[in-house]
Amino acid sequence: MKWMTLFIKYRLWLGLVMLALAVFVNYQTSFWPSFILYFIGAICILGHFLLGPMRLIQGYMEEGDIEGAKKVVNSILFPGLLIKPMRSVYYTLKGNLAMADQDLDAAEKHMRKSLSLGGGALTKQAEGPNKLQLGMLSMQKGNMKEGESLIRQAIRAGLPDSENNAAAYLQLCSIMMNKREFRMAKQYFQKAKSFKATTPQIVDQIKQIEKYIGRMPG
């Protein structure tokens, strides 16, 4: 909702204005008439530092506006003040932005930081996608054993949509092909296809594998 986006964007400034008004009313009258202003101001300021602008960042990323997302992320000066679930989301988003910039070392560092926080509904929800990203990073760095382990952990933890599930099983298919375990590779390929992903990159990958997977033994 647009009003919520605007509120989050200007929440800190609204809180400061409310506190200034509270001090003025308190000075002109007494504490109790200004109490509600103090209360609203404190809620807005605490919300800014404890909850952060995660909704804004996710909105930018969903729209494909990476630069806009970076600006909001960089505006968070004290991530250590964020409550644990929001801090986990913050590091996940930092990792995704680093991946977009092909900064694999930074992406891995942020993803591992997010996983290390643990606990809470939001962090549990991010566990699967984070481990999938880490698995793919490990594979890009040539560490196939760790990559396979992390991708299997991601599937067990749960992935949020068909695109992530298809990507995970395609990665396992690729690993099995490299290990020459062709029967398992075919099973994982069929599993990936069953999710009917629509992301162009995944669709293209499926088409490329389909050209020669039928000629494999097993």
Structural write-up:
This protein is an all-alpha fold and 218 residues long. It folds into 3 domains: 50 residues; 92 residues, Serine Threonine Protein Phosphatase 5, Tetratricopeptide repeat, CATH 1.25.40; 58 residues. 79% of the residues lie in helices and 0% in strands. It is built from 12 helices and no strands. Helix 5 packs across helix 6 and helix 8 packs antiparallel against helix 9. The protein is elongated, with a radius of gyration of 23 Å. The mean pLDDT is 90.
The shape is elongated
The share of residues in extended strands comes to under 5%
Helix share of residues? over 70%
The name of the CATH architecture of the largest domain is Alpha Horseshoe
Task: Count up the helices.
Answer: 12
CATH topology of the largest domain: Serine Threonine Protein Phosphatase 5, Tetratricopeptide repeat
Question: Radius of gyration from the CA trace?
Answer: 23 Å
Q: Low-confidence spans: pLDDT under 50, at least 5 residues?
A: none
What's the β-strand tally?
A: 0
What profile does the largest beta sheet have?
A: none
Indicate the CATH class of the largest domain: Mainly Alpha
What is the number of domains?
Answer: 3
Order of helical and strand elements? HHHHHHHHHHHH
Look at the structure and give the mean pLDDT.
90
Question: Structural class, from helix and strand content?
Answer: mainly alpha
Q: In whole angstroms, how far apart are the ends?
A: 53 Å
